[in-house]
Ornithine decarboxylase (Rhizodiscina lignyota), 434 residues
Amino acid sequence: SLTSHYGGDLHNNYGNGVEHAKEIIGQAFKQRVDGVDGDTCEVGEEDAFFVADLGSVYRQHLRWKLNLPRIKPYYAVKCNPDAQVVRLLAALGTGFDCASKAEIEQVLKLGVEPHRIIYAQPCKTKSHVRYASQHDVKQMTFDNADELYKTKQLYPDAELFLRILTDDSASLCRLSLKFGASLNDTGDLLQLAKDLGLNVVGVAFHVGSGASDPEAFLKAVQDARFVFDQAAEIGFNLHTLDVGGGFVSESFENMAAVLSSALDANFPSSVRIIGEPGRYYVSSAFNIACHVIARRSIVDPVLCTQSYMLYLNDGVYGNFSSIMFDHQHPVPRILKSGDRFLYDSAENQDGCEFDAARAGGVTEYSVWGPTCDGIDCIAEKWTASEALEVGDWLYFEDMGAYTKCSATRFNGFTDAHDVVYVCSEPGAKALLAQ
Ligand code: PLP
């Protein structure tokens, strides 16, 4: 088991490396930015880049095992399909939630057995279903009658999970607007599956990505219980519940406690429970550094104040797509100002949100991406105690979820940003070395 394998790790901040994680992330940032001379470098050398701490992913896994021992995680690849993250999780023994042929292929190529994959997409492309069938990836979700006919035609011995609607009104990204059968329809869908001779093995739900209301988990578990009973009446013997994703690091223990007790109250231990966490695993592992490529000075003649617009070489069409698609508000921090390297320094501890009352002695900025579009704004108001100039660097934390996976090449900027990997956990290092 993980507990015995990793000894004291579980009770020491979920890992041994957390204390020096910042130190090695800072070193990686410094080494890279010190090597860039904006006045002479080749095109692309000054591009934004990530520093990813795989030790953070490892710690999140230990934390999951400690708080949700009943639930086997199937990492949601869509959230961040980074090759090293997926490799580490494969070595840790997780399963994978894949949304397409490409994601299934990526995971299978690592040698992960097909039964560790769930094709968790209720509205699938036919050729992708054929691919899943050819590769024995049996577990898949559905939420409508057409998908059942499709399954009957293409993959009649698939192991089906009926995805049900949830109350996701308190989540950042509402998924039930698009997916999930209502409890009014589950009976008919189960009956149709029975009539078609299909194999329904479980129920799936997702309370919305970035969930904040633990009660949503409680209600979804109760609804799933209802569908389990409904299925039994129709002649199915469901054996697995998929509780989806939605977990965020900040409220994880609280969510996990509510979910665990709801599961124990509604499902006997004979029922297998899986989950599809994405954001929880990777959000805090990735940090990004961006170069200040241009600056515009704004003078207010009435107030006699001066502020600046800073233009970075990454924005909402790139890795900050999370602002548009994931409702995030990334906080700028100063990485390098002139020759001063300021990662994790006092200058970055406060003053990040604009506060007019405290604005004396600090400079006000707005922070923009590199494209021609006015929507490409990272932060409308930000203050810093440093006077920043072209050639300086900013960094942003918590950039691992729904960021680089949805970056575009709009305006000809790259979507292939480098990742510098560090690993603050010896346990993860050992697994990756295998
Ligand atoms: N499972 C499914 C079916 C999803 O659509 C998503 C996200 O969109 C996830 C899991 C991952 O969710 P999260 O990142 O909130 O854990």
Observations:
- The radius of gyration is 24 Å.
- The pocket of pyridoxal-5'-phosphate is lined by residues 76, 79, 97, 120, 175, 206, 209, 244-247, 276-280 (CB under 6 Å).
- The chain has two domains: 3-51+283-427, 81-277.
- Confidence is low (pLDDT under 50) at residues 1-12, 351-359.
